[in-house]
Amino acid sequence: MHRHLTPAQRGETLIGLLVGLALSLLVLAGGAHMLAQLLRGHRQALQDSHLQQDLHFALDLMARELANAQYAAHAWRTRQPGGCDDTFCDAAADFQLGINRIDFSTDRDHSGQQDNNECQGFRVSDGVLSKRTNCSASGWQPLTDKSTAVVTALQAQLHCSPVQGWLQRQLSLQLDAQWPGDPSRQLVLQRTVALHNRVPAALQARFCP
User: How does DSSP classify residue 124?
Assistant: First the structure.
């Protein structure tokens, strides 16, 4: 005697199994896509964090060194409101702003005389921020790496206030950068630096035009 099975007792048909398998694959694909997006977002966040750390380090270094621009050990003897008689404020190159570049001098060894390693500065060239190490044309040391940060611009604006025959100065800095190969991911950092060493107001045309 044969027993007839109802459709519910016969189990799934081949078509039903294929449909279920297809739906399972769609769910897995959607999950894999979401996981990939999460991993990509996490990787970008780490990259952006490293970019910010590198640029903050560079900007901190710039601020520390620029604060001492045109320091001279015996400035109290060589500088007066009417003029200057030392090698750290006798030429425009002792403090000069250009396109993507800042040049200045400072008396590193406190001798009162300008040595070869006392020409300082910063510049952006070919996506790299560099620090000037001496007065020669080739004396530049990179501060950033293009593989982790492409520095696109260095902007500086000088603000001067005359105070009893002297110029009190502040320098507004802006550093622009982007992630290598992805111009849409940009970062702009700004800082205002007070220059500790005043220069004679008589030299405003030279040092604060």
Answer: E
131 within 8 A of 139, measured Cβ to Cβ: no
Q: Tokens 């520390």 map to which residue?
A: 64
Q: Which of 80, 121, 86 is nearest to 100 (CA)?
A: 121
d(CA 203, CA 92): 10
Contact by Cβ (8 Å): 179, 54? no
**Mind listing the pLDDT tens digit for each residue in 21-77?**
777 777 777 777 676 677 666 566 656 667 788 889 999 999 999 999 999 999 989
Q: pTM to 2 decimals?
A: 0.77
Which two tokens mark 50?
């490293």
Look up residue 62 and give its two tokens: 């710039």
Provide the pLDDT for residue 6. 53
Q: Name the strand (E) or helix (H) holding 98.
A: strand 95-98
Q: Give alpha helix (H) positions in the chain.
A: 7-10, 14-66, 75-78, 204-207
Residues 6 or more apart whose CB falls under 8 angstroms from that of 107 comprise: 71, 72, 73, 88, 114, 118
What separation in angstroms does the CA of 162 have from each of 68, 173, 199? Answer: 19, 21, 10
- Per-residue model confidence as pLDDT tens digits over 114-170: 999 999 999 999 999 999 999 887 799 999 988 888 999 999 999 999 999 999 999
